[in-house]
Amino acid sequence: MIEIEKLKEKVLRGESLSKDEALSFCELKTDQQEELWKAAEEITGKYCPKEFDSCSIINARSGKCPENCKWCAQSAHFKTKIETYPLIDREECMHVADYNRKQGIKRFSLVTSGRKMTGKDLDMACSYFEELKEKGGMHLCASMGLLGEEELRKLYDAGVTRYHCNLEAAPSYFSELCSTHTVEDKIQTILKAKEIGFEVCSGGIIGMGESRRQRIELALELLRVEPQSIPINLLCPIPGTPLENMAPIEDSEVLNTISFFRFIHPKTIIRFAGGRARLSREVQKRCFMIAVNGGIVGDLLTTIGSKVADDSKLIRESGYEF
Q1: Model confidence over 226-273: pLDDT tens digits?
Q2: I need a surface site. Which of 209, 233, 247, 307 has the fewest CB within 10 A?
Q3: Which runs of consecutive H residues, i.e. helices, occur in the chain?
Q4: Largest CA distance in the chain
Q5: Is the pTM of this model over 0.70?
């Protein structure tokens, strides 16, 4: 049996779990789940502020991506029915940003398809960020692929303070899902971003056929980059992608996974991203109480998000300030 109480007390003393201790969660039994969830909630209560870290994103360039990530609707390798378009114009970007600013959203991010943003598109996006910085009211984030130092520096100089690049899956499983780049490619981009001065947002997707051990492996791999924010997505099977028929991960395993992440990253924002709409209101609320203290609100990328007002009510009911 896993000694959950012992592991919890170690984390509450400010000590980190060893790799073996973290991997011991692989042996979690059904009758231990409630104890695990309550322990993670206690860790969250000690280390995490009561202010919910909200963010919103805009799908600023969509589709025609050369990468072959099996989960993604935007890959040009698969026949999906998403809308494809080049970089959005300035007016649309400012309109969406103004809406989110008025809703009290803390962070705003431009997310673009493709291996990375370069050239005139990157320069135009940087001009958007410069205008958004001048208007103020929100922290600025970007998710623009596997950028090099020069591209990252342009974003930083334009006012972006946080860079997002998900590892997506454990290194031992990632190659089953994508062959056009690696987890190590992602880590190198993140480390370059950190050297420049960015905060980092990096997490992954669960429910893509990985094992529980590989979900814990992902949490451990993220220790290499020490992100300020870890987004956790639940797979949304997209028709036309290789994962379109993947069975959904069970609610209890979602609760287990966010608990594992909280034990391994006690002070980090754990952020609900895509896929949570399939969870019931009560399960979402339990997630917030256990470990999730940040989230993307409003519309997402290629799947439907949620209304800001609905999220705000649920978040406050879970004990957070929004």
Answers
A1: 999 999 999 999 999 999 999 999 999 999 999 999 999 999 999 999
A2: 247
A3: 4-12, 19-23, 33-47, 90-102, 119-135, 149-158, 171-177, 183-196, 212-221, 251-264, 281-290, 308-317
A4: 58
A5: yes
